[in-house]
Amino acid sequence: MRNSKGFSLIELLIVVAIILIIAAIAIPNLLRARIAANEASAAQSLRLINTAEFAYNAAYPNLGYSTDLASLGGAPPCLPSSAHACLLDNVLASAIPGSGGKSGYVFATTGITAGALTSSFITGTSPLTFGVTGTRDFCSTEDGVIRFDPGKTGATPVTKVSDCQAFTMMQ
User: Fold this and answer.
1) Would you say residue 22 lies in a domain?
2) Residue 47 and residue 83: Cα distance in Å, rounded?
3) Would residue 4 count as lying in a domain?
4) 48-75, pLDDT tens digit by residue?
5) What is the DSSP letter of 28?
6) Sheet with 105-114, edge to edge strand ranges
7) How much is the pTM?
């Protein structure tokens, strides 16, 4: 009679194969869940930027809306001024193209000036790496409606009101 201890090579290979099959099924779902979370974060960040723009307009009525994202934020300890209003956290206020972004997205805010007053704004966001961090672009104007469009590789945040209004409204 043979007294064996441990597992045979075949048994170990079967266990490894089962683990690999489970991983192959789970990883794509994990990536899709991460993209969905990044997109939800991007839409919520646009809502925060809209709120900050409205607060900026109320705080500085002689200027109107902010002309860029940086003027809505400010590094701590932040002292409010028209150049750094301290309305957004600095991570979001500095998530501009060329930076590391926030939750896989980069943001841009453009103020639309009529005379000396910035009477309107547009905020856009695009995935930092299309297909990995997100698959949709988002935008909003002073109407506060979040709109989205299927993204594409190399996309940059929308900076024109007409381009944003062509996007589909979120439900």
Assistant:
1) yes
2) 21
3) no
4) 999 999 999 999 999 999 988 989 988 8
5) H
6) 105-114, 117-127, 136-141, 147-150, 168-169
7) 0.82
